[in-house]
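input
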Amino acid sequence: MKKLFTKQTAMIGFIFFAAFILSRTSHAYLAVNETAELLPDGYFKFGVAPQLRLSDGGGLNVGAFFDTFIADDLNGRFELGGGKTDFWSQASVKWVPFPDVERQPALGIRGAFIYARDENLDFYNFQVAPMMSKVADTRYGKMIPFVALPITFMNTKNNSTTATQFTVGAEWFSNKDMHVGAEIDLNLSKSYTSVSTFISFPFDAAIGYKK
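output
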């Protein structure tokens, strides 16, 4: 019988606990929910991202995403979601010119256009997120810790602002058929603190990063 309390479950628990302590307002659709690793040519995957809203009455959002290869250093993502936030959609492109090689981490940037509808307001957001990740081998399988700095230009009919966050998380590949990740997004300026998880199902049992 497998142990219920491991380093992996302890890390996930810590992420949720930290997010609960630090949480203010949570617009979970601003989450990154991916590493700086790239899908190789011919591969694609889909996943779901449960997103816990811890303030303003609480609630749950759920997003579904699809990742695909575009070019050697480009991946694309499409996402739809809803729940406590009425509806959102996102299209993004991730560019990683510096892959994870030897001691060098993967370094890249993601640009995303996000449309959201919440409480009779339409949000038109453009997000730029420098990101970094590094593959690590653990006793529980491969893990990819990552950090990002999302900068979101948020626009409504009567208002616009620039929001910044600090994102930290990790994705685990202990199961070849299902990959699990978690992240917290901490408010730096005019933004929100939130917590989210993401679960992906790669095709052809691919790990989902370029070797």
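quick obs: The chain has one helix and twelve strands.
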